[in-house]
Amino acid sequence: MQRFAGKVVVVTGAGSGIGEGTARRFAAEGAMVVLCGRTEAKLRRVAADLDAERTLVQPADVSERAQAEALIAATLARFGRLDVLVNNAGTVVTGPLLELEPEAWRRVMATDLDGVYFCTRAALPHLLEAKGSIVNVSSVSGTGGTGT
Fold this sequence. Notes:
The chain has helices at about 15-30, 40-45, 65-80, 100-130, and strands at about 10, 30-35, 55-60, 85, 135. With about 150 residues, it is an alpha/beta fold. Strand 1 (about 10), helix 1 and strand 2 (about 30-35) form a beta-alpha-beta unit. It starts with 7 loop residues before the first strand and ends in a 12-residue tail after the last strand. The model is unreliable at about 140-148 (pLDDT under 50).
């Protein structure tokens, strides 16, 4: 039994790691999957193993509001609905906090926090209509820097 047959799932950060695994699992459960990430080549590598009719590769930098909105618009244009949003995109900068430049900190916050906000804001009306779900993924290794 495929628990997500007929459902549409957007996974950000789908080019590797947890996002890739999440996208593959949803696809195995019958979902139509939208693979989102900044690197199209990584997304295409993941998509190569999935059913092309049920997969959309949509490169986007979710830290940019317009790109997050375009992601949701492309999902609706292709599949006509949205049932699940997996906010998984994240970035990390490692090193001593005193050496962390403010610009690097802003890049982390823009992806890890603003990206969740922009994607959720764009998707929410459609998720409410579908009685859908949002999954926010986080990691302790996704910190902006380490101590001294």
